[in-house]
Each structure stands twice: as C-alpha cells, then as structure tokens.
Specification:
Elements (H helix, E strand, L loop, with lengths): L1 H20 L16 E4 L11 H18 L5 E3 L11 E12 L3 H6 L6 E10 L5 E11 L7 H16 L5 H4 L8
Parallel strand pairs: 1-2, 1-3
Antiparallel strand pairs: 3-4, 4-5
C-alpha cells in the first residue's frame, strides 16, 4: 500500500503541473467563432464510488486538456470561472462517476489478465437552463501496462471523442427565445 502511494502522489503532481502550464482557453479568435459553442467543465462528482481526490482532479484536468485538443469549442472554461456568465453559447459538462475499480499496477505488470483499473462515468452536456444536449455513459480503463492514472486520461479522451463525434445544435439557433425570432 505504501509503495503505491509513493508512486501515485508524484504521478498526480506531475499530471496537475502539466495541466497548470497549459492554457485553459482555446486560441480561437472571438470574431471567427461567433457561432461556436464554449464549454464549462464542472468538477467531477465522485457519486457513490470510493474515488480518491487525486483521481477526481486527474479526471477533471484531463477533461480540460482533451476538450481543448478537440478544437470543437471556442473556449474551455473551468468550474467557477467568473467569465462564464458573460459567455454566449455556453454548454456545461457534468461528469459523475458511476463505477470505479482501483486495479493494481503490480498485478498488471506480472500478469496481463488481472489488475485492470476501470472507470465508468455519466457525462452530460447541458445548456445553462439545464436542458440536456448529450447524456452518455463512458468508460476509461488501463488493462495492461501503465499507471492507474492512465485510466483517467483514457476516460477523458473517450469523453472528448464522444463529444466531438456528436452532432450539437447550432448555437445561434439555440439562443433564440422560445416561439420565434430574436
């Protein structure tokens, strides 16, 4: 147990530091992407899973990084960003952990059939009024070689891939009030 904590804590610190250095907003200009969605990533809800805070942070930071990489959004905002209230065409990404199996790096290294770390989450992409645009159950895991935190990266990559492949409504149309034109 102590060995895994010694490995896990520096790995978490490295993941967090790598994301602190990266920008949280995409480099798209405001003029060229007026009809493009922005997204605010809400902190990960651990649900009923016994998920360490380091894993919650790693999932959150990986989500921000992977969503920026999709180039799908004008901006990727963090939870609590004061600028979010002024952003038009904003979607909110909520992530709730449904299942978590810790796994073992040692067991994966010795035998390739056991020790997998598995994460299952419910991801919802919503408008600020609460209307759900996307609701999917998504998995992330590490089955063979690699650290337990690789499951958080794989999960975030799968969430971003799902969002990128999903057809979202046009932002300019969604800004219209119910019943007609502006």
């Amino acid at each position: 147990m102590k060995t895994s904590k010694r490995i896990l804590l520096p790995a978490v610190a490295a993941v967090i530091l790598s994301f602190v250095v990266l920008p949280t907003h995409s480099s798209a200009s405001n003029d060229s992407s007026a009809g493009q969605w922005s997204v605010q990533v809400v902190k990960v809800d651990p649900g009923d899973a016994n998920l360490a805070a380091s894993f919650q942070i790693a999932i959150y930071e990986s989500l921000i990084h992977e969503l920026n990489n999709t180039k799908r959004f004008k901006q990727v905002l963090r939870d609590g960003d004061r600028n979010a209230s002024a952003v038009s065409n904003l979607l909110i990404l909520k992530t709730t952990v449904k299942k978590y199996t810790p796994g073992s790096e040692t067991r994966r290294a010795v035998t390739t059939v056991s020790g997998a770390t598995k994460l299952t989450v419910q991801s919802q992409l919503c408008r600020p009024d609460g209307q759900v645009i996307l609701d999917r159950t998504i998995n992330g895991n590490v089955r063979f070689m690699g650290s337990n935190l690789k499951a958080t990266h794989n999960l975030a990559r799968n969430v971003a891939k799902t969002i990128k492949q999903t057809s979202l409504p046009e932002p300019s149309l969604s800004a219209q009030p119910p019943g007609g034109s502006l």
